[in-house]
Structure of MBOAT family protein:
Amino acid sequence: MVFSSIFFLTYFLPTFLLVYHFTPRESKNLVALLASILFYAWGAPEFLGIALGSILIDFYIVKAIYHGSSKIKKQLLWLSILINVGLLLYYKYFNFFIETTNQILTNFGIESIGWTSIVLPIGISFYTFQKLSYTIDVYRQVRSPLKKLIDYALYILLFPQLIAGPIVRFQEIASQFTDRDINNYTDKLYGFYRFSIGLGKKVLIANVLGEQADQIFDLEPVNLNSSLAWIGILCYTFQIYFDFSGYSDMAIGLGRLMGFHFPENFNSPYISQSISEFWRRWHITLSSWMRDYLYIPLGGNQVKSKLRLFLNLWIVFLISGLWHGAAWTFILWGAFHGLFLIADRLFLNQLTQYIGKAGRVFLTFIIVMTGWVLFRADTLSQAIDFAKTMYSFNFAPIPNFASLELLITLFIGITLSFLLIVPSLNSFYSKFSNGTSTINSLSKFFISCILFAFSIAAISGSDFNPFIYFRF
């Protein structure tokens, strides 16, 4: 079940919100948990037992960590990490490991290994990181564990952010399971507004651009020229942003409707002036998770050797790339960004001071867009061929790929992505989003209704409605 489906928007969500609203405060977590279990089971019933079983085991392991001696704490910490990372490695990477091994064996003339392909449980990358943050935060005594199994299960399975984030760390939301404002109508209006903004991003922009990007990336190399390649990657660049940030907006909005405050996940990433800044603005919850639970434990910025510092950065981004997908294209995408993060620190930030703010934004955008080729391509050879075509500058007419709808959508996507680079517009947007006056509230409600209605119409008229990050 996806947020942008007719069933979710017209049946599941209204029914849930109605029941949730009239449920007594002490039972709201239970209702939210049951709805979340139904939401997950709708898309992956065969994996529900694994998710619930691991939640049950983790809940009692972490309780034992909290009350145990220093020696047993560390052993139980590693047990919890082993269980959660082990499940992630098995379900997400076992196929990749066997396929890679078979390629090596075949090259040496050895018979390949037979195996049954393993299906990836939806959302496992996201909820595994949340489970790890719970265990580590309790171990570090940042927070005490939740007292009720229902509350912990809800933290892991809460349906607004279960499938594709944002990655909500335990310390950011712990108190909200027992003490949250569930009758704040300003929050509810903001939640509807934020959900509608995200739905509009996904349905009205990302879907249109995604359909075009798919057509171009599906072309054979002989039918591709530089014009098509640049249009294809431009469409994908804005598709993935509006798809993923749209999902995050919807998740944050749904959380607000339930009384939860989730962290922001995007902050106009395409206006970044360096790759380092890009990662402070793109998928913020993943970047901060990697920083606090991986980069800093490796030594962070406190290491004495620059070589060790650069190695730590590269390790983090190689793991980040692998986290996104079990393929060499994702690993190389992570290495690509790690390389430019190191270049930022070595010379790139100093060098780009001479090209001005606009020049730095443009250069960073081109680097990011080139990296998306690796992210989008199905194979490494396709990524190489596509990038070669882009940078061969063999431009040709593109009459069949320049529809009016595409051009208008692309213009809107570009405008919205770079709009907040203007300080006055950034300030206006911030004031409008956080405003609570009557005029402000009525404006938000009107915008929300319009976007919601247009999105429903668009969904009804199209069967193209993927969510990019569902496969992670």
User: Anything to note?
Assistant: Residues 186-471 form one domain. The CA atoms of residues 127 and 248 lie 15 Å apart. The first helix runs from residue 6 to 22.
